[in-house]
Design goal:
Strand content: 15-25%
Bound molecules: adenosine-5'-diphosphate
Number of helices: 16
Mean pLDDT: 93
Oligomer: single chain
CATH superfamily of the largest domain: Aldehyde Dehydrogenase, Chain A, domain 1
CATH topology of the largest domain: Aldehyde Dehydrogenase, Chain A, domain 1
Radius of gyration: 24 Å
Structural class: alpha/beta
Length: about 525
């Protein structure tokens, strides 16, 4: 592993950040100026952290190993973070366990106040956090700042929910008894998060966990750990006590195994690939932990003949191209009824053509790079399979001239259900458009998958919107809307897309145990 590049703490930015991109001088100059300007602001705010957080202390890996964090738009190394494993994770679990004994006893109102302060700090640093997200994840700055608002929204919402952890009084069937239900925090939570929403995937787990009185060990994606560390720094500034929120990173399977093996960890919450989710679910069996999983999707986006074309194009564009197609709720199969098919493909393609590709810091950019080379190669292989089986390239279908991991916004028509692109998650800026004749056929196609996270329908027929929404085997359904995720509504999948819900009042249940208390001998004087 690379030695540490700069000794200074807490900030350690490699000197060449970000280097010029020889073939695109204008593009590079834009990055350079923006990045330098914000880097100093991040440092001033103490938000550029490059150590993990265990028991309130910033920590290196015990053996000094590090991993590099890259800017996906340039390939430059931004900084290094500790490459941790079992020992550091066990210490983080011990810290969380110790903190649990006091945090779980703090009043709900006090916990609510801490979370509210954290929310305020996240919002007051919206710009810096957005810049950090753009730097390590690549999404356009406006979108990144949107993620901060969205992600912080979970902390605000659960700060309020903290005050509403109600139990029940059960009418007793026996005269001498009184029966009640208490809701209590489940304990130490292991939270494993992906790179596509470096902030929001953390806040929607940690918000309800802390509101309920749980403590957490977070393992962010090694591709985007800096946002997690900045959020943790703000949590400390908000007065969330040491040990309540720990962040470790490094060897994913070693950290995951340590979380799974520990009897002190009572809950695993995960967002990521279906394959890793299944491993975690199996691993949690050893100590019978509670498990929440947000896994892969294969979202159908069904456009009926009776849809409003403009609404359908706008909604599908948002559902498909948000985060350059890298979300588990992205429209993976755009299924269009034959009567509107040509008109839709034409109007949709015109809209896609307008999406500007570039570095996330550049003005007007709507599509950033993909997260890494492997992601581009996956997209390329899906497109190759589809075109070799008869799909037509309407737009794009190749790497962007900017190089690196930029890929052209792409539209493929005449996609068929048996092509890989319609069966697996694309996770890239490729819209695959299928054709159907009847509502029954659309439903059969839509439900013919093991995934069941998000689905979208576009229709102006009220009866149809109810009928189809009810028949879709999915956890979320957008009707005439492509962006439906919010902290106030439950998010989660059915079938192999996951277990449990995040956001909304249902998101609290995942971090609570239900305890029945029976008081006997209650009728004698
Ligand atoms: P993606 O392909 O979107 O990166 P992954 O499921 O591989 O999805 O990653 C999501 C999160 O799971 C990341 O934080 C990653 O480091 C972590 N992860 C990957 N493999 C394991 C594992 N075996 N145990 C625990 N966490 C893992």
């Amino acid at each position: 592993m690379a030695a540490r590049m700069l000794a200074a703490r807490p900030f350690k930015l490699v000197s060449h950040l970000p280097s010029m991109h020889a073939s695109t001088p204008l593009f590079a100059r834009q990055i350079s100026m923006d990045a330098k300007g914000f880097a100093s602001r991040l440092v001033d705010a103490g938000l550029l952290r490059s150590q993990a957080l265990i028991g309130g202390k910033w920590s290196d890996a015990y053996d000094g190993n590090t991993i590099k964090v890259h800017n996906p738009a340039t390939g430059d190394v931004i900084t290094t973070v500790p490459c941790m494993g079992q020992n550091e994770t066990n210490d983080a679990i011990s810290a969380a366990s110790e903190a649990f004994s006091s945090w779980s006893k703090v009043t709900n109102v006090e916990r609510s106040k801490c979370l509210r302060k954290w929310y305020d700090l996240l919002i007051s640093h919206k710009e810096e956090l957005g810049q950090l997200i753009t730097l390590e994840q690549g999404k356009p700055l406006q979108e990144a700042m949107g993620e901060v608002t969205y992600g912080a929204g979970f902390i605000e919402f659960f700060a309020e929910e903290a005050k509403r952890v109600y139990g029940d009084i059960i009418p007793s069937p026996l005269a001498d008894r009184r029966m009640l239900v208490l809701k209590q925090p489940v304990g130490v939570v292991g939270a494993i998060t992906p790179w596509n929403f470096p902030l929001a995937m953390i806040t929607r787990k940690v918000g309800p966990a802390l509101a309920c009185g749980c403590t957490v060990v977070i393992k962010p994606s090694e591709l985007t750990p800096l946002t997690a560390l900045a959020a943790a720094e703000l949590a400390l500034q908000a007065g969330i006590p040491p040990g309540v929120m720990n962040v470790v990173m490094g060897n994913a399977s070693a950290i995951g195994d340590a979380l799974l093996a520990s009897p002190q960890v009572r809950k695993i919450t995960f967002t990521g690939s279906t394959a890793v989710g299944k491993k975690l679910m199996a691993g949690a069996a050893g100590t019978v932990k509670k498990v929440s999983l947000e896994l892969g999707g294969n979202a159908p986006c069904i456009v009926f003949d009776d849809a409003d074309l403009d609404v359908a194009v706008k909604g599908t564009l948002g559902a498909k191209f948000r985060n350059t197609g890298q979300t588990c709720v992205c429209a993976n199969r755009i299924m269009v009824q034959e009567g509107i098919y040509e008109k839709f493909v034409d109007a949709f393609t015109k809209a896609v053509q307008k999406l500007q590709v570039g570095h996330g810091f550049s003005e007007g950019v709507a599509q950033g790079p993909l997260i890494n080379e492997a992601a581009v190669q996956k997209v390329e292989s899906f497109v190759k399979d589809a075109t070799s089986k008869g799909a037509k390239v309407v737009l794009g279908a190749k790497r962007h001239s900017l190089g690196m991991t930029f890929y052209e916004p792409t539209v493929l028509s005449d996609v068929k259900s048996d092509m890989i692109i319609a069966r697996d998650e694309i996770f890239g800026p490729v819209a695959s458009v299928l054709r159907f004749k009847t509502e029954d056929e659309a439903l059969r196609m839509a439900n013919d998958t093991n995934a069941g996270l998000a689905a979208y329908i576009f229709t102006n027929n009220v009866q149809r919107s109810w009928r189809v929404a009810e028949a879709l085997e999915y956890g979320l359904v957008g009707v005439n809307e492509g962006l439906i995720s919010t902290e106030v509504a439950p998010f989660g999948g059915v079938k192999q897309s996951g277990l449990g819900r995040e956001g909304s009042k249902y998101g609290m249940d995942e971090y609570l145990e239900v305890k029945y208390v029976c008081l006997g001998n209650m009728s004698s004087k």
